[in-house]
Amino acid sequence: MDTNSIAILILLGSFFIMIFLRFPIAYAVGLASVFCMLFQGSSLNDISRLMVKGISSFSLMAVPFFITMGVLMGSGGISQKLIALANACVGWMRGGLAQVNIVASYFFGGISGSAAADTASLGSLLIPMMVDEGYDADFSTAVTITSSCEGLLVPPSHNMVIYATTAGGISVGSLFLAGYLPGAVLAVTLMIGSYIFSVKRGYPKGAPFNIKDFIIQLGKSIWALAAVVIVVVGVVAGVFTATESAAIAVIYSLIVSVFIYKGLTWKGVWQALDACVNTLSIVLILIATSSVFGYALTTLHVPTLAANAITSVTSNRIILILLLNMILLVLGAIMDMAPIILIATPILLPIATGVAGLDPIQFGIMVVLNCGIGLLTPPVGAVLFIGSAVGKVPMERVVKATLPFYLCMIGALILVSYIPDISLLLPKVFAGYVPVTM
């Protein structure tokens, strides 16, 4: 075995061993990189410089701002207003509260950008409401956790910023626009599944649609929804960069939460900022260690080896796309979202754009959606655990109730994977984006 092969074995072998030993993911990524690079003769100073370089990016400055925006808005009392707006839109349908849950997640996701925050915030309100109206607790929890993944696709999403930075040279504005239709497709598939179950189990429906009530609730929610407009329109129109828009959105969110909705006190602001620091420290450590990991992968030519291995199985584009999705789904079951984006993108993106003929933006949406499904998949499944705790339902029952909704999410994933315009139509129309490959 040559030196290169031994280095790859050290890098990947130690990484997966630590993953299965339940090491924190940042430690697993960092230690595996250190072991590999020390074997190759690099010094600790070289490794430290690579870590610092990994987080010394202007575009990555948007990540802490978007996280702060999401925490402020999520703590500012907007959940009830978005639920009321969603109820005015779809509450009249059979299984109305389940449909409200899904639509509210679409609205809230555009503000928080976090599936975990969506589940914790909306779930704590909607799951008890659904149970009181006669819905089964496990069904209510399953709807909540699956619909929370819409927030990963609907901009602004800090995970999309991480993908754009990792992929290199991708427009954040175009990537933001690309998330709207896939998020809507996911919502529609979940609504169809919820409707079928609601009819089968005889779940109730709400009051008939009332245009006056809809306009009233829209007026109450407009301040929250405007935050998304400021970010997306500002970036796409070129008024400011993603980082600048995120900073402006934080100030706007603070004003709305404290002075307009008055759901957040100044003491609550400090508590929200404390939560932001905790979350951000984890994200930045991951980005720093993953940059070293990615450097090691590149110098060892692992992306090329992976491309050759996958293409040796088949050259059929349809099967290749299916294989890429399967790899990401498996990774999602054992790793969290940010490390998958940081580690898998340098390896799989050349295969996706080269052999499979996918556009980088379309592939980015696929990565995010796959990771979202992974958040609901044991054994890691962070959102699965949060949903179980919020709904006070044993995890085994939640997994069983979620199985039909997995099919809905896989259906949305297949549509996004094989129909490029679901991801690329809005960037082409509103941002003048020219697809790289079709």
Molecular structure report:
This protein has 438 residues and is mainly α. The protein has one domain (60-290, 302-430). Helix content is 79%, strand content 0%. It contains 22 helices and no strands. It has helices at 3-20, 25-39, 44-55, 62-75, 79-90, 96-112, 115-132, 137-147, 150-153, 158-167, 172-178, 180-201, 211-236, 242-260, 266-299, 302-313, 317-334, 337-354, 360-374, 382-391, 395-418, 421-430. The radius of gyration is 22 Å and the shape is globular.
Q: Indicate the overall shape.
A: globular
Low-confidence stretches: none
Computed structural class: mainly alpha
Main sheet characteristics: none
Rounded radius of gyration (Å): 22 Å
CA(first)-CA(last) distance: 40 Å
- Helical amount: over 70%
Number of domain units: 1
Assembly type of the chains comes to single chain
Helix and strand succession? HHHHHHHHHHHHHHHHHHHHHH
Which descriptors would you attach to this protein?
22 helices; 438 residues; mainly alpha; 79% helix; single chain
